Amino acid sequence: MKKKNSIWVILCYVIFFLMVFGINSIIPFTGMDDLEFGIPDAQSHNLIDYLLLVWNRNSRRLFCEFGSWMTMRWNGKIVANVLNSLFMLGLIEGIRRIAKSFYKDNVDKHQTIDIFFALLAFGSINYLVIAYTCFWGSGAVNYLWSATAFVWCILCPIKIVLNAECSNIEKVISIVSTICVCFSEEHFTATAAIIVTCCFGATIVNKVNSKYMLIEAILTIALTIVSLQSPGFEQRSNSEYFYPGFDSLPIGIHVFRTYQWILNGILNESTCAMVFFIVAIGCYYYSRNKKIAMGIHSIAGILLVFKVISVFSTIPLLKQNWGGINLLDIGLPMLSVDNPGWFWNNPDTEMISWDYLSNIVHFRIIIYGLFLLIILLLLVDIARKNCKYKGIIYAFGLAMVVSLALMHFSDTIYASGSRTLFNFNIILILTAMLVMHVSDIKGKYKCCIIFSITAINMLLACGDILNYLATRIL
Q1: Spatial distance between the Cα atoms of 302 and 428, rounded to a whole number of angstroms
Q2: Of 69, 70, 114, 74, whose CA–CA distance to 96 is shortest?
Q3: What is the DSSP string of 339-362?
Q4: Distance between CA atoms of 310 and 329, rounded to whole angstroms?
Q5: What are the CA-CA distances from residue 302 to residues 14, 328, 378, 463 (Å)?
Q6: Which of 11, 144, 250, 260 is most buried, with most CB under 10 Å away?
Q7: To 5 degrees, how large is the angle CA 291–CA 293–CA 299?
């Protein structure tokens, strides 16, 4: 039986690899953004010289720059396709292994089902976030590679806290991934450091004696500090190229614009992943307080309905009548089809403020903020009532908040687009999977729930794509 299960697992991953490789092969190698600018340097420098060059010039992401060098050195599309497909495979396997550690009995009886559960959970992430981080040249080496290192970095600390079996191979991969993620995209570096440190704190509180946990915690903190000392990172941090006047923004306006960006990212660009998270919380309360569970599921349903309406409101043939009822519009015009331009061209006139917004948008911003606060408090309540998972839930919650809040300090807040939400979405679905496992919902119902959410996410993606095509035709 075990051998038969292994064959199915291998078959699942082979099919998945071929699918990802096929998608990568269809996407042309042109329009690679940052990669295009680095081709001359990559082709004229060996690896060490190239890493030293970017370290001193504009980057602390040595692991990502290694990926860029591998991709640009021979200008090889096939190299990028194979590497990115392998990292995609590694990301899903890392998510699966983390989810496996959440089981109450720490037993993996249905490995094939776990793979599908991990794939479906990943499929709840917005298609634009996945497209710009997993299938776009510059996005893949900076975000996909970082995400894979991130999940494998936090794998062993999570297993140690949850008293799950952690093999020597996993420990070696986790240590290597720790080194890689500390020199990766900043969101993944910061959240990895937070989760590993919280896990180390949890082992102390729970009196778990783990030399490995101590080593990884020290390594993570030390290498993160070293990476932040990069001359190139300091120069880039002091730049206002993407948002002139960014550092001189009044604190109140700066905080509001960050909050507005965060709210928009959660509601409009992370909709189905957020619905999965809210539904998972509702599932936890279902056997404990059905009224609370129904209220939580109602919030998820309302968010999903509002998202469907927002998609309909942008259809060219219906826009004249429906355009005014985009219920998820919180006044951030960057995502509007009517205003796709970059903010930094004229930030003083294109940027908006609280006074500029209408009363209905004011109401939405306040109400949606309150809803998210309620969901966060319910997550804290779940952590408080489940001592075994408390440290992990708090670590994930803090990491999600930090992942979003980091954009407050970046002048690329309006330039980077959906890809900056990838780290938040990864942690969001991991938290949802954890809460789902803690609940009393049976396995088959879990799969049905996430399958439904992912299917809806795909339909919404099709709607967005059709709208985009229609605006180019009509």
Answers
A1: 19
A2: 114
A3: --S-GGGSHHHH---TTTS-HHHH
A4: 8
A5: 38, 11, 18, 19
A6: 144
A7: 105
When the pLDDT of each residue in the chain is averaged and rounded to a whole number, the result is 85
Distance CA 64, CA 146 (A): 7
- 33 DSSP 8-state letter: T
Looking at the predicted structure, is the pLDDT value of residue 434 above 60? Answer: yes
Q: Which pTM was predicted? A: 0.92
Tokens of 236: 């880039």
Alpha-carbon span 125 to 375, nearest angstrom: 19
**Average pLDDT score over residue span 348-372:** 82
Residues in the chain: 474
Question: What's the average model confidence in pLDDT over 129-139?
Answer: 88
Q: What is the mean pLDDT of residues 55-61?
A: 88
Is it the case that residue 229 has pLDDT exceeding 80?
yes
Residue-level pLDDT at 342: 47
Measured between alpha carbons, how far is 405 from 323 in angstroms, rounded to an integer?
31
Cα gap 235→54, rounded to integer Å:
11
Q: How many CB atoms lie within 10 A of CB 38?
A: 21
CA gap 386, 382 in Å, rounded: 6
Distance, in Å, from the CA atom of 151 to the CA atom of 436, rounded to the nearest integer, reads 19
Contact by Cβ (8 Å): 274, 124: no
Cα–Cα distance measured from residue 139 to residue 136, given in angstroms and rounded to the nearest whole number:
5
Share of the chain above pLDDT 70, in %: 85
For residues 237 and 148, give the distance between their C-alpha atoms in angstroms, rounded to a whole number.
25
Decide if 453 contacts 274 (C-beta within 8 A). no
Is residue 196 within 8 A of residue 157, CB to CB? The reply is yes
Residue 223 CB coordination number (10 Å): 18
Eight-class DSSP state of 417? G
Residue 128 is inside which H or E element, if any? helix 127-134
- Residue 431 token pair: 């938290």
Task: Give the contacts of 382 (CB within 8 A, at least 6 positions apart).
Answer: 281, 284, 389, 393, 435, 438
State residue 341's pLDDT score: 44
Name the one residue in this structure whose structure tokens are 């999903």: 304
Return d(Cα 416, Cα 336) in angstroms, integer.
16
